[in-house]
Amino acid sequence: MAVGTRPGERTERGILKVWYNPQTRALIYQVALVGGLLLLLWYLVSNLVSNLERQNISTGFGFLWREAGFEISESLIPYGAADTYGRAFLVGLLNTFQVAFIGIVLATVLGTVVGILRLSSNWLVAKVASGYVEVMRNLPLLLQLFIWYAIITVSMPGPRNALEPFTGLVISNRGIRFAVPAEDPSHFWIGLALLFGIAAAVLVYRYIRRYQDRTGQRLPALRYCLVALLGPPLVIWLAFGAPSEMSVPVLQGFNFQGGMVISPEYAAVLFGLTFYTAGFIAEIVRAGILAVSWGQTEAAASLGLRQGLVLRLVVLPQALRLIIPPTTSQYLNLTKNSSLAVAVGYPDLVSVGNTTMNQTGQAIEAITIFMAVYLTISLSISAFMNWYNRHIALVER
Amino acid sequence: MTDLAAPTTAPPPAQATSPLNWIRQNLFNTWYNSLLTILLLWIAYQLVPPIVTWLTVDAVWWAAPSEVCREAAGACWAFIHEKWRFIVFGFYPHAEQWRPALAMVIGLGLLAASCNRALWNRWLALGWLIGLPAIGILMSGGILGLTHVPNTRWGGLPLTLGLAVIGLVVAFPLGILLALARRSDMPAVRAVAIIYIELIRGVPLITILFMASLIIPLFLPSGVNFDRLARAQIGMIMFAAAYLAEVIRGGLQAIPKGQYEAADSLGLSYWQKQRLIILPQALRISIPPIVNTFIGFFKDTSLVIIIGLFDLVGAARASLADAEWRGFYKEAYLFIALIYFFFCYMMSAYSQHLERTLDHSNRRKGDLG
Hints:
The complex is a heterodimer. By secondary structure, chain A is α+β, with helices and mostly antiparallel strands. In chain A, 30% of the residues are buried. Chain A has 13 helices and eight strands. The radius of gyration of chain A is 29 Å and the shape is globular. In chain A, strand 1 (163-166) and strand 2 (169-172) form a beta hairpin. Chain A has helices at 15-19, 22-55, 85-118, 123-138, 141-155, 186-215, 221-239, 264-291, 294-302, 307-337, 341-344, 349-360, 363-392; strands at 163-166, 169-172, 175-178, 180-181, 246-247, 250-252, 255-257, 260-262. Chain B contains 15 helices and no strands. In chain B, helix 4 (77-89) packs across helix 15 and helix 10 (228-253) packs antiparallel against helix 13 (287-300). Helix content of chain B is 69%, strand content 0%. At the A-B interface, helix 2, helix 4, helix 5, helix 12 and helix 13 of A face helix 2, helix 8, helix 9, helix 13 and helix 15 of B.
């Protein structure tokens, strides 16, 4: 039988035949895309090189080892104007971490509370909570930061007639100061003992779980864990003779001395981030709890679980599964939003980088550092949260 | 339906809806709710009267010099009286401020008309075709006897709205393309989309704005340059496109595979399939997150003040820098907060309306029992 063309088969030859093959076509598209991008990149980079030469801007990260020459108002590590740009970036990075971490903790607590209150059967409470959420979500964070900053620096009284709600806490336009234990050599050892205590508490908890699996008996886990956690630091504290001297804020001249200070800039960033993000977390928590059907609660109650246990063993584990992924992205948003600190002058990474860019002109390097840092933070938080998600995911059989 | 066995049971008892009953059921139903109610009422009693007095009774309502305000115990609406045109229009020349006002009216009117799908006809298209150049001419001037106003003097609300609307209009199609690219079968296309989206979403908007304002000039051949406003707009578009892409991808993922297969079996090409079958469904289910992204983006336009543009927030801050009126931040921020709240609230209300009217699902809605 002669081999002919079947009806419907394409009869084009040569170049058209190649073009009608979906695989080759896809390959051509991709080669064109990548080639085009590479050409564009080459064009941009060649412009960049000539521009940098013309404007006499040096390149490379060598500037990180040069003297910075500017002061930073807040730092977790010792820093002075004579230190390097690299160290300045490190100071900024630590400040970013600090404000983001504390903000995440506070926003989670506040957001959870507000989210639960929105579901309250008390009409007034529910309305107040939803009003809070509406206001926070509909105003720009930057505006909120400016409002907090203005409240502290403009509306608060000067140090001489500072507000003192109770002894050991003073609020003035120079920031918020509160009493802390006076510096003492025992602190280092107490901190070490606390780390040890955390490890001990984890071990004790594991042992209790195993004991319950083996014998069916429940030990008072909370009590034992608390002893394991707080026991070691307490012993060390007593061993050092129970130092109890406090460093309290005292007015000296034009400002307060002593105690721990929260600067207006830091307070504005922290309050702004916390209240703003809490509005979003509240909505997530509310949706998560609503998604667990009432039948689950009833079923748990019919098994004879007490109300606290119903929440802990039945409702929360199911709600958390829905709450955690969006909350993760809120944590990421908070961390990224902490870069708005530059607007009120809190020396976070972006703020320090901005000063560096203005001084050295090395914008590309500074922005590369920003991107590297924020991408690392983003990717590690999402990696951790993915792990946690898998950990609590529904095991379907 | 009526000839089927009609229920013979008595109607439910009328609910007791006396106000007293309502209060008992909604405010004092348990002991801790009673406690919370009392606590909240006490806080309200402490806070609300002073705030209301500050806002109204003690306030300076009429135009007055700042000294009068400093002596008054209440809000200084004289400040708003004095500065509202600066806050709303920024450094735009005072005598010409009817132009951005008219431009905003045209833009917002066209947007409002476009929100009603019954009005989607060629007249509306014509309206946009005439309206957009008209807005441009009004803002920039230079022809038709209008004096030229360089865009370095644009500011306030027109700038905020312009950045947001232009940003979203351009970023939306880009976002759709990126979302499709990320779901493409071609590995190189997918990789490019993933790298772009994750890179942009992983870094704060400020970084992108810094990049747009400081690095874009370095990448352009000497002599070619965009002004600062255009660079900020480019940065905002790059940012919005990545976020919209992820939201739209969520919608695309929710479309069952059968829809793709049905479209393929009809012999539709890739673009026909996306345009006629996939995207209409995917965009509809992603309306709530898309509007959330829009609201977030509208708020995020305030960040341009960090690279030196005077949008609404920037103009409000600049108005506070006037030595004579320093310190009236509450009035200024309250004023712009109300503007932001109004626009964001309208957007979320429209999204809820859209969700209802576009809900063509076969879910039961009526009283078919």
